[in-house]
Amino acid sequence: DQQVKQNSPSLSVQEGRISILNCDYTNSMFDYFLWYKKYPAEGPTFLISISSIKDKNEDGRFTVFLNKSAKHLSLHIVPSQPGDSAVYFCAASAYFGNQFYFGTGTSLTVIP
Amino acid sequence: DGGITQSPKYLFRKEGQNVTLSCEQNLNHDAMYWYRQDPGQGLRLIYYSQIVNDFQKGDIAEGYSVSREKKESFPLTVTSAQKNPTAFYLCASSIGRAENTEAFFGQGTRLTVV
To answer: What residues contact B48, with CB distance under 8 A and at least 6 apart?
Structure first.
């Protein structure tokens, strides 16, 4: 049972435009959310996170938005760059939780 | 230079053989994790360990075994009982419980069973 879902397997965006990656979750106990970026044959690298007490967190070109009532979060990348082309994973954890739950990933392609 | 080291990067084994994947971290993290990545299935948790000499099964533990004899090391053995062992394996660690913190990943091991 997938508790974290990324329903878009792929996304293509023109360089300079905004990329919006979406993530939904089902477990209301989740209170910490993370985004990871992954290149082929490499391990994921942490990008940005958000606690459930916030609805927005920004770090440079990356902003994560959290809508708790809808159990939905999104990652905005502005402006998108060709180097952003990678697979992005959404992840979640719960208070007192012992594991991270990952989505299936969205492959982003930024077209020069 | 702190981090997580997985070795080897590529591994080939014959069907029916057990194989052990190495994972070492020098981040002084208490928790360590093993994930498996298959195309279109994201990262699935195999085993995790919160402290030395203790570990718990994840969602897909069948056919795998682990040990945690040292804080720095969390090796994964893929046994002959694992029906479909060919995959990309990722080791991760976090400072403690998976709450309000991030997991750091190694570079992965690509296991191919022929």
So the answer is: A98, A99, B31, B32, B33, B34, B55, B56, B58
Q: H/E/C letters for each residue in chain A?
A: CCCEECCCCEEEEECCCCEEEEEEECCCCEEEEEEEEECCCCCCEEEEEEECCCCEEEECCEEEEEECCCCEEEEEECCCCHHHCEEEEEEEEECCCCCCEECCCEEEEEEC
**Bond prior to A79 in cis (omega within 30° of 0):** yes
pLDDT attached to residue A41:
86
Taking a C-beta distance cutoff of 8 angstroms, is the pair B106, B88 a contact?
no
Q: How far is CA B92 from CA A42, A100, B15, B95, in A?
A: 12, 10, 26, 11
Q: Which residue of A has its CA nearest to B59?
A: A1
Mean pLDDT of chain B: 93
> A-B interface: how many C-beta pairs under 8 angstroms?
74
Nearest by CB to B102, from A49, A94, A104: name it: A49
From chain B, the residues in CB contact with A96 under 8 A are: 97, 99
**pLDDT (tens digit per residue) in B44-58:** 999 999 999 999 999
- Return the pLDDT at B1: 65
